TrEMBL record:
NCBIfam families: transpos_IS30. It comes from Limimaricola cinnabarinus LL-001. PANTHER family: TRANSPOSASE, TRANSPOSASE INSI FOR INSERTION SEQUENCE ELEMENT IS30A-RELATED. Coiled coil: none annotated. GO terms for biological process: DNA integration; DNA recombination; transposition. This is Integrase catalytic domain-containing protein. Keywords: DNA recombination. One of its GO terms (molecular function) is transposase activity.
């Protein structure tokens, strides 16, 4: 049967079949006519790969050495590198340590809490990235109009979330800054729900004229996946930075840095009132900025609104 027919019979993509054949193909240099894919050999090779990945299950001494170092605060990369440096008979890859930590055996011992950066679920290092239409290509920052890029237009914002220590709860602070005037808006969220965040944005920005809220640039965090609500709710467009490129929305990153003077990471955000958040925003907007000719963001923002009224 052809690969396409095999894929159809097994309800798999043909790329999956090609990958299986290539990965488990038997090669015989002396008798090339015997080279090919054999089911029994393929199964044996797959079992051997799984067996190698379970090295920390099979080798008690190695497992105990890894766990001791995890509890001492070492990262998996440091553990793997140190074992090689010390010349241990059995070495290990840091990816194998991560796989063990997030496996059923590792979770039963709650080993993930010892990692410098804990995640709910470990993703393979070379895993395929999920394809999604949540942030379509036409909304990429490269397609943003020139008047947004060069700050010549008014009403284009950048948005982000400021996150605080986990033990203080799920509350966070949303930060907004108008790119031309550097006018800042901070408000509190009780969680990272995208629906709640977008509803708050619409409530806060809707009173402004349309030309004062033309667009907002975000990163690709899941809290912004309901960006279409902005367009339907108040006619505001959304643009998105490239993956792992927060510097592309540098204005709001700079605002977050300034706001951390008033809101360090150990702040109990849930205890702050909306009035307190408004006072922090007012303080930031009353500070002269060199990029504005030492006007304050509040003065520059008010001047732009007056020009809109006159036009």
């Amino acid at each position: 049967m052809s690969v396409a027919n095999i894929a159809a019979r097994l309800s798999r993509h043909r790329s999956t079949i090609y990958r299986e054949i290539r990965r488990n193909r038997f090669e015989d240099s002396e008798l090339p006519q015997l080279s090919g894919y054999y089911g029994m050999l393929a199964q044996k090779q797959a079992a051997e790969r799984r067996h190698r990945r379970r090295k920390l299950i099979r080798m008690t001494a190695l497992r105990e050495a890894v766990i001791d170092r995890l509890k001492a605060g070492w990262s998996p990369e440091q553990i793997a590198g140190r074992l090689r440096f010390e010349g241990h008979r059995s070495t290990i890859c840091h990816e194998t340590i991560y796989a063990f930590v997030y496996s059923q055996d590792g979770q039963s011992q709650d080993l993930a809490r010892h990692l410098p950066e804990r995640r709910r679920q470990r993703k393979p290092r070379y895993a395929r990235r999920p394809r999604s239409l949540v942030f379509p290509l036409e909304r990429a920052i490269q397609n943003r109009p020139d008047h947004v890029n060069d700050r010549s237009g008014f009403g284009d914002w950048e948005g982000d979330l400021m996150i605080f220590r986990k033990e203080l709860g799920k509350a966070n602070v949303a930060s907004l800054v108008e790119r031309k005037t550097r006018y800042a808006v901070l408000f509190r969220n009780n969680d990272r729900s995208s629906k709640q965040l977008m509803n708050r944005l619409i409530t806060l920005l809707s009173p402004l004229p349309l030309f004062a809220r033309r667009s907002i640039t975000f990163d690709r965090g899941f809290e912004f996946n309901r960006w279409r609500d902005l367009r339907t709710g108040m006619g505001t467009e959304a643009w998105f930075c490239d993956p792992q490129a927060p510097w592309q929305k540098g204005s709001v990153e700079n605002l977050n840095k300034r706001a951390r003077r008033y809101l360090p990471r150990d702040t109990a955000i849930a205890a702050l009132s909306d009035h307190a958040m408004a006072e922090i925003s007012a303080q930031l907007n009353a500070t002269p900025r060199r990029c504005l000719g030492y006007r304050t963001p509040a003065e520059a923002f008010a001047e732009e609104l007056r020009q809109l009224d006159r036009s």
